[in-house]
Amino acid sequence: MTSTPAVLHAADLAHRRAGEMLVTTTETVAGFRVVRVLGLVRGNTVRTRNLGQDFLAGLRNIVGGEVTQYTAMLSQSREQALDRMRAEALALGANAIIAMRLTTSTVMAGAAEILAYGTAVVLAPEE
Q: Does the predicted model carry a pTM greater than 0.70?
């Protein structure tokens, strides 16, 4: 059985299972200390609407209610941006991302960018 460095104990950072990484909007994590700041990491995706979604959205606008096609598209886009950010942090040797933010911007008519960014760090349990 191989030993794992203290900063990577699965028992201490349960969020790291199966390739997951702790991602938080806060600048601190209770019970842990930042032992190394690795820098800014980000992930993004740009998505465009399609004619079918626009037609359904127009109908939904008339009768009211949630436009589930857009909701699903935006949810998938956020996850893709987060996955890309996590991959960048992992490549730097991070076990967590702190101060994470999500932002959306229009890059052209009908296309939006979802950007996830934060600070890649190495956390260790407080002693």
A: yes
